[in-house]
């Protein structure tokens, strides 16, 4: 509560009191009496009496109490305000004297009582006081003391009489009692008071007294509240606050005494209740709730003021901070209720606001390194000296060499027009000189003459135009012209008159001054100045002059007359009209008067008023006509004044310095001393450039004529734009010191002013110094007079002129050394300079300046906004046409400047080319490291490969591809590959968040549960699980880091040497095994064989050789047809070009060959006699079969674990299956057991590489959006249930579009040739078709398309390409089966070794068959050796079924897709099959393959292979057994026809027949034909060439069987023959 | 390329990861590695390093001081791909999980001499509030797949990061044969300035 408020309250209280006085004056008196009574009772009365007293008070309680309350209320005041010691001032309050005097009286009495009570209190208090000092809570209590009471009181009031609050009351009352003066600085704390009363309280009456007091206070507070409510009403009371305050204080004093006697005022009253309405009313009065409405404009502005919008006036107003409208309104309303509220509003009626200071964008705070700060403070830093740049100035041309600008300041001299040492004569002389100068200047201009001439001309013109005969123009125009001329004549005449007058007065003054000077010289009897005025009289022709004079006057008079006439006419016109009006009015008046008389009484009132709407028009007075004589007189007077009289000679003053100055010795003493003083003085000038002294002139003595000659030129080399050039005039008197006389400010020259052209200018200066001298000198700033009596005083200040010239210097070659930019428009000029750049850098809008200007005008761009300044300037420049803005647009306008060599040179640079190619990621250079610095270090051969490839792009290479069709296909494939790779390269640079940031997925409940479950998991479980190995990103790898681990465990059903041999023959003699009619040669008997023989065991000693990237490892030799090796082979892996990046690894095409050999020992001992002493055996190995696993499979599968069927050639000479159970060719499940040989393998890589993630580029699609959404949903659902099962709904076709998978399945006709082969045997046809499909070469997508992306080609594309992976094969096979009328599905699942793959499922009558499309083999559903290990989904031509069975092994699942519990179908009732059209062609067209081309190819392959074998045997002679070869060649077509079945025996027999005396080992290889390389590899891997028996012979036959559509089946029969001796 | 001594220049960097300012975290360690272009090859020294765990100093500065030395020498034929040092700072979170506290990168100074660099550090933000919470709760905050990402511009547009903390590095850079190959990286205006230069990339 501030004091003012308090005051107000006090006043209010007084007021109420007064009112009450008036109202219940009587009662009050009684109450006062009573009070006095009470006071007396105080000491004696007990509590009982108090009650009775109250009852007694009864009806008058209220006023009494109120009266009392006012006083008690006052009591609390000093506690808030602190002790005051103002002397009591006699009150002049409105309460009236009576009241005051009554109070006075009361006070006196109360004071007496108080002193008593005080003494009593002092007696009681002594002990607690010192304690207070120690009280820890004192502070707190004190604050409470200061602020709390009112609240406490409130509480007490509410609780009324409640005893429980007695303590509080005590406290309060004690406070009151203690707040008396005796305790000077502070007050007893409440705590203390409490203690006091609780501990030291003994007399009963005291307590009651306190109670009463408390009660009083309650009332008082209520009063206070009321007072507050009434506050607004009591404004007039303000002026008497002071008095009242004092009053209050006094009152308090006596009230303290009174309190003691207030015990009888305890009253029991009903609880106060204020109705809600009343309360609301009161609140309304008390509280102010600012409205949210918009404040009307007039309230916010000063009266009668219109809002002024500065923005509209073109002044810049910054953006105001954003404040919601309602808030603004509230604030405005609030402000308006305050008295000076309008001060907050601007001219526009809005609250004043500064522009929004908040930056529109956040910025990073500076580095918060405290310790650095400390360090940087301590550390000394070297800083180069910086050239001073004038802080507020723009440095001129940062790029320009400094100091190339020069300002020449030529100071030639100084003339004082007044100086303290001037004598009186000098003063006059100076004045004279000045006047003369003026005269000369005027004469030079000769304005009077000019004006006179003009006047004449005008007059002539008027004369001319007045003559109507001569003017062909219309009267109207002439009239107008004449009027104009006339007005001009008038003006000119006036001007001429004033000029002439001036000339004349000037001449007069000159003469007057000269006269004064002469008189002065005479008076002082010496001359100080050489000035001499000569008045030359020029004679004039008296007559002519007079005539001219007279003519002039006449002309003037006539003109004036004319003027006056015109004026008179006008006035006359005016008069006439006025007169008419007046007459009309008169008439009307008269008519009215008549009417009035007739008018009825009641109308009179109104009509009475009517005649007085305006004043009575005065009767106009006609203007006076002008009198010619008067005018003439005036003109003549004026002429006499301002003009030379006719005949009077013209006076021409001439000022010369011809006079002589009186020498010193003839002068009086004072004059001499003056002259000496002058001599002692010298003057110099300082030159200040930008307020810094740059140079100063020599100090030159002041001449007697007060002229100083300097004649110095200062060359200022400047850096900064000259802001100011100042000369300071310093005067030195003797040796005493220098004083600054004055400062002369020189204007900075225009840039056009260069040295040599600059005129000498005189610049005046003056000083305000006051100098009084003791000699003749008149001093400066002091009054002096020319008169002897000292009247007509004159005060002159030191002043003078500096003659100087400032100009820009010119350089040696004549170039002015002017800074190119003037400071004022420096930015603007530089903008000009860069106009070209701006127009090109800036957006297109800038190129068209007009458009820009238009836009600026339209968008009402504030031209005063500093933000827009550059733009506005640009527009200004552009529209004013000052600058040249090119109308062309240059993209890289600085490109030429930055070209440091020509383009040709750049292109010639090998290094640059290499860098370019590398950045383009051209495959040859993609990972090129360390491009040399110099061109000379780059070999030309670096580019050879690349250039060759570029050249070859269009040339079909026929060397590698023997078959031309293959070559074209290869080319096509290459192109597809390139386009896909390009797409991937682009896609590779598109990153997803997941590529960059590893983030945990938000766990769902199951994962969370699993995690929780894991917490409870045993740390060391009894059955530990295999943990995944750590994967390595292929980045920091190099050769030798990666190893291929091949664990060969065991094999089943290895072919054994011919069982016939087991009966009676050596098993190794395969040639013999065929028929028993050939006797075995004894040399072939070996000890091992003989050892085995008794057991009757057929022997085979197989071992496994693994070859990878031409590295070969092999296991030890095991024995028997079911060997177990359990050996781990380790093969190093080398990535191509040492590039271990993911893409590179993906495209590794190498295969891992796992070959099984039979080790055969031959005894080569020549002589049986040596058998005892030496063993001579030769180890031969016979190839039995192989398993081929592509590296890419290993790479993507990470490990390959399983049992594989060994690829055993159909004919294996000398070997047979041990248990060759000949079963009829049914599709029974038992059959498969003996079908082939198997090997169990585990292959992995160490360390495990992270396989490249598939490209998840979203390809565009032509599928229906709904379908796509459904596929996504379906896949998501499936993945949720069985994340490991493959679910495929959409695939990407060769053109890179997403296609729904069922569109690939459609019945397609197989070649007719195949169908007609077995017309009656559908099973055989199916097999043949499968074989046909398997003959199409296999090429994994990952190899062809680096980056894991599965592209599905349609069947015709597949057949054209003749290459594809499992999907294409499967699709084609499935389509064929469908066309054959089978029920066929595509099976997506996992197989070994392929991994995720596609198989074909067909439904036979009772069972299902699973077809491997790549090998052509088929398996029954329950075949344990079926490579398909899991089934993810089935795809039919019109639906997709996802496997939702518990198991996914084909052995354990039900293939009945009609059961929705087992198979989740994509198209169902809710989403019916929409009948998607197929992407497959209607029909496949098969061309017959050219047989001759096939034969040719066959020959070439044979030739090449033979050469290869010879190459592989560099140390041995390779003989070819032609006979055998031809035999084999005949045999091969047979094999093809029978598909390698059931021909073996016949074949053997035939062979034996023909090659009886040869030991023969060999086998046919069968492959689909794609390229030559795989054939070579296959032959190599058999190791046939490894035989190094000296007399070995070889046979090699190739047969190619052409199938339609260029599908070629290649048979290669390789054999080695050793002649038996 | 050319067998007989291809022209290279050498860049020797030693110095140390001096200290860090992570006002909220304690017990941090840092990893550094170098990212450089294809024409660069390290010839000596360590390309990568992992520091000890440091605790906050107990004074007002609350600095985390590692003083972890860096010493590596590169050879190169091309200033393109000038090495950058990539720093990643890790430390335990409330639950004791090791989480990333900041990534940052700065080029090795070009000019020979002593340089001090203060790198602002940042961490990738979670993609959603829920992710943020779970990552906080599980102690698996988002991290870059490869810290070297921060030295590259590619793909950064998909990430959102929050800045936290600074790391101060000291480099002593020596170059050899740069001038011979025509690259002048001599100290610019002020010869041999010792002391901190303002960190690059910070608003002045």
Automatic annotation (TrEMBL), chain A:
Keyword terms: Coiled coil
Coiled coil: 441-502
Disordered: annotated span: 16-248, 586-625, 1060-1092
Keyword match Coiled coil: yes
Bias-annotated ranges (Basic and acidic residues): 101-117, 149-158, 210-222
InterPro entries hit by this protein: C2_dom, C2_domain_sf, CC2D2AN-C2, CEP76_C, CEPT76/DRC7_peptidase-like_dom, DUF5523, Tectonic-like_complex_comp
Segment forming the signal sequence: none
Residues in C2 domain copies: 1026-1204
Skewed-composition ranges (Basic residues): 27-41, 586-597
Keyword Transcription: no
SMART domains: C2 (SM00239)
Composition skew (Polar residues), residue ranges: 1062-1073
Top-level lineage group: Eukaryota
Protein's name in the database: Coiled-coil and C2 domain-containing protein 2A
Gene this chain is encoded by: LOC101388681
Automatic annotation (TrEMBL), chain B:
Main subcellular location: cytoplasm
Pfam families the record matches: B9-C2
Subcellular location: Cytoplasm, Cytoskeleton, Cilium basal body
Region (Disordered), start-end ranges: 182-204
Domain of life: Eukaryota
Keywords per UniProt: Cell projection, Cilium biogenesis/degradation, Cytoplasm, Cytoskeleton
Task of the protein: Component of the tectonic-like complex, a complex localized at the transition zone of primary cilia and acting as a barrier that prevents diffusion of transmembrane proteins between the cilia and plasma membranes. Required for ciliogenesis and sonic hedgehog/SHH signaling.
Family: Belongs to the B9D family.
Oligomer status and interactors: Part of the tectonic-like complex (also named B9 complex).
Official protein name in the record: B9 domain-containing protein 1
Organism: Ceratotherium simum simum (Southern white rhinoceros)
């Amino acid at each position: 509560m501030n004091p003012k408020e308090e005051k107000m309250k006090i006043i209010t209280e007084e007021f109420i009191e007064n009112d009450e006085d008036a109202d219940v004056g009587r009662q009050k008196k009684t109450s006062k009496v009573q009070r006095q009574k009470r006071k007396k009772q105080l000491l004696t009365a007990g509590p009982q009496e108090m009650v009775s007293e109250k009852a007694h008070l009864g009806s008058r309680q209220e006023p009494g109490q109120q009266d009392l309350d006012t006083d008690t209320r006052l009591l609390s005041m000093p506690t808030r305000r602190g002790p005051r010691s103002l002397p009591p001032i006699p009150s002049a309050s409105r309460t009236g004297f009576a009241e005051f005097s009554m109070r006075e009286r009361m006070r006196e009495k109360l004071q007496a009582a108080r002193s008593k009570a005080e003494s009593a209190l002092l007696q009681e208090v002594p002990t607690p006081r010192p304690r207070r000092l120690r009280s820890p809570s004192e502070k707190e209590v004190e604050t409470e003391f200061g602020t709390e009471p009112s609240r406490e009181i409130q509480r007490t009031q509410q609780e009324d009489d409640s005893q429980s609050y007695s303590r509080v009351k005590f406290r309060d009352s004690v406070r009151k009692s203690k707040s008396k003066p005796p305790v000077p600085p502070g007050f007893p704390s409440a705590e203390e008071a409490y203690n006091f009363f609780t501990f030291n309280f003994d007399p009963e009456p005291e307590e009651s007294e306190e109670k009463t007091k408390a009660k009083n206070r309650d009332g008082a507070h209520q009063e206070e509240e009321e007072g507050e409510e009434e506050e607004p009403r009591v404004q007039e009371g303000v002026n008497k606050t002071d008095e009242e305050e004092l009053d209050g204080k006094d009152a308090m004093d006596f009230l303290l005494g009174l309190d003691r006697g207030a015990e009888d005022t305890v009253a029991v009253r009903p609880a106060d209740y204020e109705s809600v309405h009343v309360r609301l009313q009161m609140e309304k009065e008390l509280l102010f709730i600012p409205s949210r409405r918009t404040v009307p404009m007039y309230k916010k502005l000063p009266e009668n003021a219109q809002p002024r919008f500065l923005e509209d006036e073109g002044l810049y107003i910054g953006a105001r901070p954003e404040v919601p409208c309602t808030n603004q309104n509230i604030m405005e309303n609030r402000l308006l209720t305050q008295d000076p509220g309008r001060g907050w509003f601007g001219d526009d009626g809005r609250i004043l606001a500064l522009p929004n200071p908040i930056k529109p964008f956040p910025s990073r705070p500076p580095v918060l390194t405290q310790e650095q700060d400390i360090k940087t403070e301590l550390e000394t830093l070297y800083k180069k000296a910086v050239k001073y740049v004038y802080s507020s100035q723009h440095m001129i041309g940062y790029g320009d060499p400094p100091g190339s600008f020069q300002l020449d300041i030529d100071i030639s001299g100084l003339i004082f027009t007044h100086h303290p040492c001037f004598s009186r004569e000098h003063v006059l002389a100076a004045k004279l000189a000045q006047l003369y100068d003026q005269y000369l200047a005027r004469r030079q201009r000769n304005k009077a003459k000019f004006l006179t001439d003009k006047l004449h001309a005008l007059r002539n013109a008027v004369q001319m135009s007045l003559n109507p005969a001569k003017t062909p123009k219309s009267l109207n125009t002439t009239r107008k012209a004449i009027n104009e001329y006339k007005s001009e004549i008038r003006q000119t005449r006036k001007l001429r008159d004033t000029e002439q007058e001036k000339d004349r007065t000037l001449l007069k003054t000159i003469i007057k001054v000269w006269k004064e000077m002469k008189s002065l010289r005479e008076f002082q009897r010496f001359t100080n100045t050489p000035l001499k005025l000569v008045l030359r009289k020029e004679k004039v022709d008296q007559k002519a002059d007079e005539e001219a004079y007279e003519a002039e006057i006449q002309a003037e008079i006539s003109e004036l007359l004319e003027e006056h006439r015109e004026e008179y006419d006008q006035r006359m016109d005016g008069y006439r009209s006025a007169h008419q009006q007046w007459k009309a009015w008169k008439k009307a008046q008269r008519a009215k008067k008549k009417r009035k008389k007739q008018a009825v009484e009641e109308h009179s009132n109104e009509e009475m008023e009517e005649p007085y709407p305006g004043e009575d028009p005065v009767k106009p007075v006609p203007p006076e006509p002008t009198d010619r004589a008067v005018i003439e007189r005036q003109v003549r007077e004026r002429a006499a004044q301002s003009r030379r009289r006719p005949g009077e000679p013209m006076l021409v003053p001439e000022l010369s310095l011809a006079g002589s100055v009186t020498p010193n010795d003839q002068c009086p003493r004072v004059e001499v001393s003056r002259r000496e003083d002058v001599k002692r003085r010298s003057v110099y000038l300082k030159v200040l450039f930008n307020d810094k002294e740059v140079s100063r002139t020599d100090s030159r003595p002041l001449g007697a004529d007060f002229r100083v000659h300097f004649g110095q030129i200062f060359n200022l080399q400047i850096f900064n734009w000259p802001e100011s050039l100042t000369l300071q005039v310093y005067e030195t008197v003797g040796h005493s010191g220098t004083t600054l006389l004055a400062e002369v400010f020189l204007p900075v020259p225009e840039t056009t002013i260069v040295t040599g052209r600059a005129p000498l200018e005189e610049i005046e200066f003056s000083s305000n110094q006051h100098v009084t001298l003791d000699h003749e000198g008149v001093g400066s700033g002091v009054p002096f007079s020319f008169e002897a009596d000292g009247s007509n005083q004159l005060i002159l200040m030191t002043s003078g002129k500096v003659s100087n010239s400032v100009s820009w210097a010119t350089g040696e070659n004549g170039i002015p050394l002017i800074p190119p930019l003037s400071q004022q428009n420096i930015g603007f000029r530089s903008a000009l300079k860069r106009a070209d750049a701006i127009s090109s850098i800036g957006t297109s809008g800038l190129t068209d300046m007009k458009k820009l200007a238009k836009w600026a005008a339209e968008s009402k761009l504030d031209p005063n906004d500093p933000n827009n300044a550059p733009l506005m300037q640009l527009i200004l420049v552009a529209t004013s046409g000052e600058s040249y803005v090119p109308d062309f647009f240059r993209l890289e306008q600085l490109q030429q400047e930055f070209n440091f060599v020509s383009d040709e040179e750049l292109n010639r640079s090998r290094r640059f080319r290499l860098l370019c190619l590398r950045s383009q990621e051209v495959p040859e250079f993609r990972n090129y490291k360390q491009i040399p610095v110099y061109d000379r270090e780059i070999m030309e051969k670096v580019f050879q490969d690349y250039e060759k490839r570029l050249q070859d792009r269009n040339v079909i290479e026929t060397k590698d591809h023997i078959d031309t069709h293959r070559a074209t296909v290869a080319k096509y494939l290459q192109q597809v590959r390139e386009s896909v790779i390009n797409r991937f390269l682009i896609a590779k640079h598109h990153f997803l968040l997941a590529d960059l940031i590893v983030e945990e997925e938000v766990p769902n409940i199951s994962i969370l549960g699993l995690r929780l479950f894991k917490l409870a998991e045993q740390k060391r479980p009894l059955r530990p699980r295999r943990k995944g190995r750590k994967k390595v990103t292929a980045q920091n790898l190099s050769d030798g880091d990666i190893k291929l681990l091949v664990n060969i465990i065991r094999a089943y059903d290895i072919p054994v040497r011919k069982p016939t041999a087991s009966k009676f023959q050596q098993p190794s003699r395969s040639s013999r095994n065929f028929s028993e009619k050939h006797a075995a040669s004894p040399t072939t008997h070996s000890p091992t064989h003989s050892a085995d023989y008794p057991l009757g065991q057929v022997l085979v000693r197989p071992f496994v050789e693994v070859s990878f990237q031409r590295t070969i490892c092999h296991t030890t030799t095991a024995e028997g047809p079911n060997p177990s090796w359990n050996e781990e082979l380790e093969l190093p892996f080398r990535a191509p070009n040492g590039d271990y990046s993911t893409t590179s690894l993906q495209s590794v095409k190498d295969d891992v060959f796992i070959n099984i050999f039979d080790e055969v020992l031959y005894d080569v001992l020549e002589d049986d006699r040596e058998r005892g002493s030496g063993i001579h055996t030769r180890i031969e190995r016979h190839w039995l079969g192989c398993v081929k696993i592509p590296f890419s499979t290993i790479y993507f599968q990470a490990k390959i674990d399983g049992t594989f069927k060994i690829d055993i050639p159909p004919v294996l000479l000398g070997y047979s299956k041990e248990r060759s159970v000949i079963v009829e060719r049914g599709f029974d499940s038992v059959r498969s057991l003996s079908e082939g040989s198997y090997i169990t393998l585990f292959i992995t890589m160490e360390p495990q590489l992270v396989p490249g993630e598939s490209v998840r580029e979203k390809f565009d699609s032509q599928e229906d959006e709904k379908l796509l959404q459904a596929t996504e949903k379906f896949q998501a659902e499936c993945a949720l249930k069985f994340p490991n099962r493959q679910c495929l709904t959409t695939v990407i076709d060769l053109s890179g579009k997403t296609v729904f998978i069922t569109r690939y399945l459609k019945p397609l006709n197989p070649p007719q040739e195949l169908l007609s082969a077995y017309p009656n045997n559908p099973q055989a046809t199916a097999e043949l078709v499968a074989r046909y499909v398997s003959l199409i070469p296999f090429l994994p997508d990952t190899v062809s398309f680096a980056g894991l992306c599965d592209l599905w080609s349609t069947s015709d594309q597949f057949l054209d390409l003749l290459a594809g992976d499992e999907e294409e094969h499967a699709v084609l096979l499935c389509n064929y089966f469908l066309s054959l009328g089978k029920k066929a599905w595509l099976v997506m699942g996992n197989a070994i070794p392929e991994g995720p793959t596609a198989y074909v499922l067909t439904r036979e009558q009772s069972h299902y068959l699973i077809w491997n499309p790549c090998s052509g083999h088929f398996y029954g559903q329950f075949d344990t050796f079926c490579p398909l290990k899991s089934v993810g989904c089935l795809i039919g031509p019109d639906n997709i079924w996802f496997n939702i069975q518990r198991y996914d092994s084909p052995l354990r699942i039900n293939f009945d897709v009609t059961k929705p519990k087992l198979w989740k179908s994509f198209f169902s009732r809710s989403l019916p099959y929409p009948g998607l059209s197929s992407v497959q062609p209607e029909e496949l067209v098969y061309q017959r393959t050219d047989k001759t081309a096939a034969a040719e190819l066959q020959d070439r392959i044979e030739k090449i292979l033979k050469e290869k074998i010879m190459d592989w045997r560099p140390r041995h002679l390779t003989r070819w057994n032609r006979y055998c070869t031809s035999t084999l060649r005949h045999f091969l077509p047979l094999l093809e026809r029978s598909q390698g079945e059931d021909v073996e025996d016949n074949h053997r027999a035939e062979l034996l027949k023909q090659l009886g005396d040869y030991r023969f080992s060999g086998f046919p290889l069968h492959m689909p034909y794609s390229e030559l390389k795989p054939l070579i590899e296959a032959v190599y891997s058999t190791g046939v060439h490894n035989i190094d028996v000296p007399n070995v012979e070889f046979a090699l036959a190739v047969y190619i069987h052409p199938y339609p559509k260029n599908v070629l089946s290649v048979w290669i029969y390789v054999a080695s023959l050793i002649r038996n001796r | 390329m050319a067998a007989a001594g291809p022209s290279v220049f050498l860049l020797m960097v030693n110095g140390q990861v001096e200290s860090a300012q992570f006002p909220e975290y304690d017990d941090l360690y840092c990893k550094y590695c170098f990212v450089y272009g294809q024409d660069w090859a390290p010839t000596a020294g360590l390309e990568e390093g992992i520091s000890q765990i440091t605790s906050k100093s107990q004074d007002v500065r609350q600095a985390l001081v590692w003083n972890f030395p860096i010493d590596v020498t590169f050879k190169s034929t091309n200033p393109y791909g000038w090495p950058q040092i990539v720093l990643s700072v890790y430390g335990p979170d409330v639950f004791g999980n090791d989480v990333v506290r900041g990534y940052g990168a700065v080029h090795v100074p070009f000019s020979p001499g002593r340089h001090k660099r203060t790198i602002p550090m940042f961490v990738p933000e979670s993609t959603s509030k829920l992710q943020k919470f779970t990552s906080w709760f599980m102690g698996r905050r988002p991290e870059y797949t490869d810290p070297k990402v921060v030295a590259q511009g590619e793909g950064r547009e998909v990430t959102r990061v929050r800045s936290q903390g600074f790391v101060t590095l000291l480099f002593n850079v020596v170059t050899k044969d740069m001038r011979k190959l025509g690259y002048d990286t001599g100290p610019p205006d002020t010869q041999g300035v010792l002391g901190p230069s303002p960190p690059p990339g910070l608003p002045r």
